[in-house]
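Tokenised fold entry reproduced for everyone:
>
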Amino acid sequence: MAGVCSGWGDPHYITFDGTYYTFLDNCTYVLVQQIVPVFGHFRVLIDNYFCNAEDGLSCPRSIILEYRQDRVSAV
């Protein structure tokens, strides 16, 4: 379906164009970012960390929304 992306598990993501990714590292990834800044600065990030899972994978710690000069983090 166009205009929909998703994420689940340890962590897996499907982009707006249907591309599948698995990000297993300890860092922050850009999930959504405008190519042409129609709405000013806007992006959505996911902060992953090594969560001591038995299989050594990373877990999402928080999602971060940046819009213009504001930044909100949900844990």
Remarks:
- The two ends are 28 Å apart (CA to CA).
- Residues 24-74 form one domain.
- The chain is about 0% helix and 50% strand.
